[in-house]
Amino acid sequence: MSDVLQNIWGGRLNIYSVTAAGLLGLVAVLVFSVFGAQASPGDSEIVMLSNTVEPGLPTGLSQIEESAVPTIFDELGSVTQDTLKEEAAPRSSSAISDKQSEWVTVRMRVTAYCPCAKCCGKHANGITANGHKINWGDRFVASDKMFGFGTEMKIPGYNGGKSIKVKDRGRLIKGNRLDVFYNTHYTAKKWGTRYLDVKVRVN
């Protein structure tokens, strides 16, 4: 019985001895792999970042791109300078005068006439009340004396909306009533009677 127990215990000790030896060997291999790799310089060359990147530039920006940057800002600066000069330039006298002029809107009854005897009666001599000699294609208006000769007006639908001047009077043209001039009786009659918002220049 004692011989059997001795054989069993002896076998266990042998197994434990082999296992311990294997573990120690594995640990030695791992230690060598880690510390040995760090200690060896290796065959590859270590590349320093400072040798591959231009100083003062972000990664990936070439020297050509760097030289273009100040040029772009110089161009932007010149555009800004020109823009400021244009904005600071004095406005022309015509622009100032147009801004200072005032127009008032007056609701008026607008009819039309021509230089014929039916429209002008005994005054059908081709000359208006302010002495203007009528020419073909003339565009002007007859008004009450409340509007002086030369007063500018803009009448919707007449003369393309462009301003015209008061150059004539009329026996029936009183108060807020106007007579626009046409060269033919047909065109004047075709105009008819209209109630319009007329713009009158007051200065």
From TrEMBL:
Gene Ontology MF, one: hydrolase activity, hydrolyzing O-glycosyl compounds
A Pfam short name: 3D
Keyword Iron: no
Gene Ontology CC: outer membrane
Keyword NAD among UniProt keywords: no
Keywords in alphabetical order: Membrane, Signal, Transmembrane, Transmembrane helix
Domain 3D: 141-199
InterPro entries registered for this protein in UniProt: 3D_dom, Resuscitation_pf_RpfB
GO biological process: peptidoglycan turnover
Transmembrane regions: 15-35
Protein name in UniProt: 3D domain-containing protein
UniProt lineage: Bacteria, Pseudomonadati, Planctomycetota, Phycisphaerae, Sedimentisphaerales
